Each structure stands twice: as C-alpha cells, then as structure tokens.
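Summary for the steering committee. One of the milestones for this cycle was to obtain a three-dimensional model of the protein with S-adenosylmethionine bound, which we needed before selecting residues for the alanine scan. The sequence and ligand used are listed below.
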Amino acid sequence: MLIRDMPGVKNKSLSNRSTEWLRRHLKDPYVIQSQKDNYRSRAAYKLTETNKKFKIFENVKSALDLGAAPGSWSEVLIKELKSPTRIVAIDLLEIDPIPGVEIFKDDFTSQKFNDYVDNSEPFDLIVSDISPNMTGHRQTDFLRSMEMLEEAFALTDDCLNPGGHFVAKYFRRGDLGQLLNDAKKKFTKVSSFKPDASRKNSSEIYLVCYKKK
Ligand SMILES: C[S@@+](CC[C@H](N)C(=O)[O-])C[C@H]1O[C@@H](n2cnc3c(N)ncnc32)[C@H](O)[C@@H]1O
C-alpha cells in the first residue's frame, strides 16, 4: 500500500513526499549495500570512506562515537579496528546493544557524561555524527550545528591521546571561524571531506583533524 493511501494519512502532499523519499531510499546503492553488509544504516559508508582516504583507523585501539544511534559507525569501528580495547557510543536515543561497545543514552554535553569521560583513559579516535534538531532556519541551524561541533571539539583537549584523530560532521552554511584556527594549531593536518555516501543535496560535511600534536 502506498503511504498516501494508508488510513489516517490526510496530508496528501506530505505523503507524496514520504512516498518519494521511500522510493529513493529503497533504490539507494548505499542502503542496498548496508543491508548486504549487515550495517544498521547507510551512514556506515561515510565513516569507511573517511578512513579509506585519511587512514584514521591505523593504530587506533579506543574510540568514542558521539551521536551514535542507530549504531552503524560503532559497528564499523568494531569490525575495522584491529584488536580494539574500548569503544564507547552515546546518543540521546536508545541504541540496541552492539557486542564490544559500551553504550550510553544521554546528551554528550551532560555533566554526567563529561565527568565520566574526564575520569577515564583518553581515546585514540573521537568521531561525531551529531545532527542537532533542525528548524529549517538557515542561520539558527548553522549556529546549532556549530555549538555541537565546538562541544565535541572541546573533548579533544583531555579525552584524545596525542597522535589521535577527530572527525565531526558540520553543516556547510557558514564559516568555522576560530574553531578552524584552533584545529590547525592542535592537529598535524585538518581537512573538510564530503564522502560520496553523503547525499549531494545535504549540506553536511566532515571536519577531519588528523594526528593530535
Ligand atoms: C545522523 S545520526 C547518527 C548516525 C550514526 N552515526 C550511525 O551511523 O548510525 C545523528 C544522531 O545525533 C544524535 N544527537 C543529536 N544531539 C545529540 C546530543 N546532544 N547528544 C547525543 N546525541 C545527539 C541524534 O539523536 C541522532 O541519533
């Protein structure tokens, strides 16, 4: 049954959009591949591509995955890191268990989570695929995504080992400003990367900070 024909669907234009989205989703090669590879979402390939280009998994034993639900990045980390010692994933949403991953349901900016990471061993890799709730207002959404990026970047002070890497999503709607300067001082190499798996019509892009000094 088409979504627009389902009982209770009154908003025909919305249901047309949903139908179109579903059609595109089911034909999407990354969705098809994620089903074959047993990943929870097509987002997995954004991380595998980033690793292919920047070799961010080399010598990495521990990783922190921010905004991890439904969990495909953690699945990639478990599968691709050589003998991982610790992988921690956090999201506001519930994440079904992933063997070998320590999962938290919380805001990654909460005092409780920050106390937890501050009091544990630093990681070799911090990745953030955080998407804040979008309002549709360009400037507000950019500021929200910047706020998340800054909070995630702040974790690289004490929670990332020297030699470790940081990868985080942001939205290409404005200037990274001071954060980019700070990143260049703190890391050996800083790049922005749009993986092929990231939809062309999305303004998301990833900041890749390689090798903390
Ligand atoms: C695009 S999804 C992540 C997909 C994930 N990388 C994967 O591969 O399955 C973005 C996630 O960011 C989470 N998020 C947004 N704000 C957050 C916050 N303050 N703390 C923790 N998670 C947050 C959302 O709940 C959402 O699940």
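Key point for the committee: The pocket of S-adenosylmethionine is lined by residues 40-41, 43-44, 67-73, 90-93, 107-109, 129-132 (CB under 6 Å).
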